[in-house]
Backbone:
């Protein structure tokens, strides 16, 4: 499923969000996906599984707070490399903690 879900995300945010609306019972599996440098502004990633996903340089907006909380949860569980999260935060001085 990861390849199918990642391919759908790579179709763009509009296509991804439409797919999410049409498939509300599917939990997207993006485990281990390389999302490096992706612009996920406006992407509906609620409840998406991001275990071991590479998120270097990912662009989100504060409206993506659910994604941020899920990333932090994954870090706490040891599922995301802490250095990746630290690098991401360092590039986002607009975020307040």
Residues:
């Amino acid at each position: 499923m990861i390849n199918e879900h990642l391919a759908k995300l790579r179709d763009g945010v509009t296509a991804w969000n439409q797919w999410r609306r049409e498939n509300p019972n599917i939990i997207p599996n993006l485990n281990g996906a390389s999302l490096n440098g992706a612009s996920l502004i406006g992407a509906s990633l609620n409840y998406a599984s991001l275990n071991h996903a590479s998120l270097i340089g990912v662009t989100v907006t504060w409206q993506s707070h659910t994604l941020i909380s899920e990333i932090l949860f994954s870090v706490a569980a040891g599922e995301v490399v802490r250095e990746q999260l630290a690098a991401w935060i360092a590039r986002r001085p607009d975020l307040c903690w």
In short: The chain has a mean pLDDT of 77. The CA atoms of residues 56 and 87 lie 7 Å apart. Helices lie at 2-10, 13-22, 65-76, 82-90. The radius of gyration is 13 Å.
